[in-house]
Amino acid sequence: MIPYTVNIKLAARTLTGTLNLQNKTAVDWGWQGLIAQGCHSSILIIDPKTTQTIQVLERHKANVVKVKWSRENYHHNLSSPYSLRLASGDASGKIIVWDVVSGTAHCEIQEHSKPIQDLEWLWNQDASRDLLLAVHPPNYIVLWNGDTGTKLWKKSYAENILSFSFDPFDPSNMALLTSEGIVFINDFTPAKPPGSTGKKVYIASPHASPAHNKPAPAPTAPAPTGAKKALNKVKVLITNEKPTAEAVTLNDCLQLSYLPSKRNHMLLLYPREILILDLELSQTVGVVAIERSGVPFTQVIPCAQRDALYCLHENGCITLRVCRSTTAPDEAAADPEQSAQELVYDLRSQCDAIRVTKTVRPYRMVICPVSENSAALTVSDGRVMLWELKAHTGRAPTNPGSGLSPLYSPVSFCGAPLAHNQKKIQDLSLNTMIGQTLIAGEAPPPSSSQQEVQLKFLLTGLLSGLPLPPFAIRMCPPLTTKNINHYQPLLAVGTSNGSVLVYNLTSGLLHKELSVHSCEVRGIEWVSLTSFLSFATSTPNNMGMVRNELQHVDLPTGRCFAFRGERGTDEPAIEMIKVSHLKQYLVVVFRDKPLELWDIRTGTLLREMAKNFPTVTALEWSPSHNLKSLKKKQMAAREAMARQTVSDAEQSSVESSVISMLQDAESKSETSQAISAREHFVFTDTDGQVYHITVEGNTVKDGARIPPDGSMGSIGCIAWKGDTLVLGDVDGNLNFWDLKARLSRGIPTHRGWVKKVRFAPGKGNQKLLVMYTDGAEVWDTKDVQMVSSMRIGRNVNYRVVDIDWCTSDKVVLASDDGCIRVLEMAMKSASYRMDEQDLTDPVWCPYLLLPRASFTLKAFLLLQPWSGTFTMDISQVDYNEKDEIKGLIQEQLNSLSNDMKSVLQDPELSLLQRCLLVSRLFGDESDLQFWTVASHYLQSFAQARQLSVPTAQGQPPSDGSQPACHNYLDICHDTLCESSYFQKFQLDRVHLQEVKRSSYEHTKKCADQLLLLGQTDRAVQLLLETSADNSSYYCDSLKACLVTTITSSGPSQSTIKLVATNMIANGKLAEGVQLLCLIDKAADACRYLQTYGEWNRASWLAKVRLNPAESSDVLKRWAEHLCSPQVNQKSKAMLVLLSLGCFHKVGEMLHSMRYFDRAALFIEACLKCGVMEANDSTNILLSVLLYRWTVYLSGLHGVVLTTTLSALVLDSHACVHKLIGAAFADYARLLRSLGLREGAALWASRAGSAGEELMEELFQGEGGPPEGPPADQEPTLGIEGSGGDEDRKFGSEEEEEEEEEECHPDVPKVCHWNLPVSCVHSDHHIFWMFKKELCVCVWYVHVCGCKQPHEGLIGFPVPSMNKECYMVCFKMISL
């Protein structure tokens, strides 16, 4: 007989609890939209939208100290799909790179045995995305290949390295925070370790720095605020000389980070200040200070989309501070010199603090890198609090003393101005909530077009963990055929604070939390699927007596009552409770008191054993009972009674089945109350003697006594199932009794005290789970063999505190690290495949799909040109894929919010906006960056074209000039911004530097910057400020004279240029560039800078000094340099070309790099914006074929071609540009490989001759077009209507009459190839193709009420058509 095993589908998972102190910095929010958090040696993957733990990764043996998601800054395709890749480092120095979806490790890396200090994936290389930089204590940085685990290079430094930060604008620059100061590295490259040891600078404590030598404020001036007071304390923050020990606290600095919102700025975090540094001056230009009564900082995260800071305080409060505009119109008018005093970050919003205790402290904050308007806070007790920033329109209460300028919402959505009735999501991201910060010299936009907004934090999710261990766990009764309809796999967890948590193990979510006891829960026993008994014991008093609490809890209602009534005070502690197999009886075992026997059904005490009753060390109920025989006896008695009451005549007329049904119902109602089955239990005493007790109703009988086994020590636990009885002792011995064969077998495990043994559920399942002090084992009692084992220090680093079975093949373990793990029988790992989970709430994460499915989803959301309306139902398109894959894609679509669905289905949403929105949805960093810049400049050049900016042949201005616009590209894009906006920002910055200068070195740098910017008058003033005792006094005076007397005459310019050239040749590059800028030779200066490898400085100088044509030449050379194999930053080069309006070149690069989807969509956007036209070449063959085709139609049918038709045939607009054709054809092939045939057919039809072969392949799958008519027959027109296909002669009166009968406004018809047909008034195209024999689709339009037919070729609009028309697509074959 094959044993029947009861099992349900439960995933291996881990329920986590409190965090270890080493987990403090182990949290990261990735571009993929998920949060990774370290919890002891495990890693949780959390979906912040639904607040669900969707994966737990377990492979580390030590506490996890760092986690870092890989960046998505690369183009995704089938060979480089979307992937969930995570790197984690632990306290033992091991780094693991994970495939999060499958829960497996890509590779494991080990260099040293000390905790990993910092991790970061490199993101700037187009070629390699597997490079992982790690800080290995004490002073090593190592570059690893994260895919293979290969060490690429290693570099050591003099000081202990605490953390590092990369410059987001120049990845060759990085800063190391060491125990003594900062080390700046400017030659970082993945190819080799940094050649130098870096520039070492020391950090002076803000409180120890000398004060500014500034004049006292005027009496009428307002008193400085707290921030200004703190700023006045700071003079020289960074110095090359090591400060004295008395003046500095070296480890005061908590964090350093480059600002991603503007170049060459860094923040330093102190407990009570945030210092903003300008790295060109090495000087503080802004301070965020906390008042004396304020709560200190613990962390700060700078934003990229806006110049804003998220700050975490010691009380768990998160604050948002936004940089104040550097000028206000009234201030600037009153005193221009006071327009730039300092960078001020105003408090704009803050969330509620948490209650901080000894064991509850805020650990870390992370923000969403895609939207930057959501924050997650991890707390030491395991909670994850999810805060979302919300924008509310309306004016704030005016407070003149606050100095706060209002925040305005932007007038655009997804990079484009809002249409009149267009839908938008205001809280999509930080840059859609608040507009750009104004800079000096910039006029504010009209207030009529903007709305003032207020920002508020809203708690949108809370993920709670388990409380502090120890735990007592018990799984509910197993699944059977009788309870299968209403069974839930519930796990009851008793905690140290007296509460009982009930978890549903299908979802891993908390089902109910019940506050049952006032002290630690010691044990739980279920008495039904919906109720349980739990007991707790208080701390013993001086006499050793405790207060026992035994509670009965009803789960649906939450009602609980004291099961033992008034008993329980001042008595020995309860050791264990055991419920019988049929849930009839309960045994309560005490430490120094005889056991009690209770009837669970009535709640009555059946027997309290005598005082001389043996001390119980272990007890277990037998699974055997006499319930079945009792039921049979009662059924027989009921049947006999029923037959006696029915006469023979009546019995013949009554169906026997009806009698049995009545008897069954009656017997069930009575026997359920009356029957008390006989049950047995066994227990052992301190001598190891086994006692057998029988209980039936109120009767308790002593049974046989079995003497102790000499090989066994004191028995600590018993398990009984079927004919097998297992005993475990305190010495680590297991004794297996075969009751049927009357045999016993002892096995010494040498594992120490056997604390618990439990049999697995399921008939015939003889697996046994054994718990020791140092781990657990699974045994097969049939063969008396160990199946699997786990031991602390060998397999795991945690100690098991309780065990149970949750199904017939999965165990559940509670451990001292505060976690509860559901494991397979092998007890190896709790990781599982994420895409196989049955989640309570659907999760939007395209990364969980197979690569083909994820790209299908992306293509489906990006463009649906085959349909008149946008749909969110994948079943409505022609998609050849398995139903299972379709279902998964539809689940992803359904998981989108209603706001997102309505915006995606909005017909006003442009292609550029859709591309930006989808890239945000997918967390695609590369796509988002590309489409942000492309959308801005496509619209800018399209606007310039409409305003009659000179263009040649439909292309943007060749000189690279950028049209003026009010909506500038954000300054976080640096040199990609418009030149005018970039110049204003740099002037504003140098004015701020000038105000903050505090030494001669600062003054010299400011003067140099002013000379480069062309601000000669102000530069001369600074040069003349040099004191006479300064060694540079003479040189500065001469330079001031030179600047003021310079002329544009030929000889002087030649001399200065010669001197500048010589200086550059002799290593004085900066001085030579200055001289060239003085004589307006900035273009030459840029060329010299590029020759000497100073590409960033050259681009900066080009943006601030050159005219558009010259600047374009410099930036184009920079783009060529970025494309070189040594640099390999083609993605950045394309962004530079986009800012210059070189859209055709960008399209070519996208296509050559095989970015087919981005290339086709970009070209389509260019065509829609009118900045690119398909008129550069003429396909003569196409024109000839079309001409012959029109002649053929005219001669064959006598149809008079209109002038419009003839013009359309010969017009050059019918020809497709080579690039456009190639890009569209390749995108069509990509869509075909994904299974989207309609999209493939559309793009192939628009690709011209490049798409002919693909079109033929597409429709061969449907049998191909019908064969043409024989040579002796006239061509026929095939019409597919509601009544089926029908062949009709073209041009006959009969045909025209029938067509008039079928005529209906706006009803599309399709030809035999089943191609979608759209209205002539839309911008969609109807498909056409050529074969060896001419085969052209022509649409024949019949106007309602008009007898004159109108014809037009496919793809070209017919101007004379009106809306009341219908179309018939037909084909003519053989010319």
UniProtKB/TrEMBL annotation:
WDR11 first beta-propeller domain: residues covered: 22-319
UniProt entry tagged with the keyword Phosphoprotein: yes
Chief location of this protein within or outside the cell: cytoplasm
Entry keywords, A to Z: Cell projection, Cytoplasm, Cytoplasmic vesicle, Cytoskeleton, Golgi apparatus, Nucleus, Phosphoprotein, Repeat, WD repeat
Location relative to the cell: Cytoplasm, Cytoskeleton, Cilium axoneme; Cytoplasm, Cytoskeleton, Cilium basal body; Cytoplasmic vesicle; Golgi apparatus, trans-Golgi network
UniProt keyword Nucleotide-binding, yes or no: no
Gene Ontology cellular-component terms listed: axoneme; cytoplasmic vesicle; Golgi apparatus; nucleus
Occurrences of domain WDR11 second beta-propeller (ranges): 488-827
Ranges where the record places region Disordered: 202-225, 1258-1303
Compositional bias annotation for Acidic residues: 1293-1303
InterPro entries according to UniProt: Beta-prop_WDR11_1st (IPR057852), Beta-prop_WDR11_2nd (IPR057853), TPR_WDR11 (IPR057854), WD40/YVTN_repeat-like_dom_sf (IPR015943), WD40_repeat_dom_sf (IPR036322), WD40_rpt (IPR001680), WDR11 (IPR039694)
Coiled-coil annotated spans: none
Domain of life: Eukaryota
Pfam families noted in UniProt: Beta-prop_WDR11_1st (PF23751), Beta-prop_WDR11_2nd (PF23752), TPR_WDR11 (PF23753)
Residue ranges of domain WDR11 TPR in the record: 999-1168
Single GO biological process annotation from the record: animal organ development
Name by which UniProt lists this protein: WD repeat-containing protein 11
The organism of origin for this protein: Merluccius polli (Benguela hake)
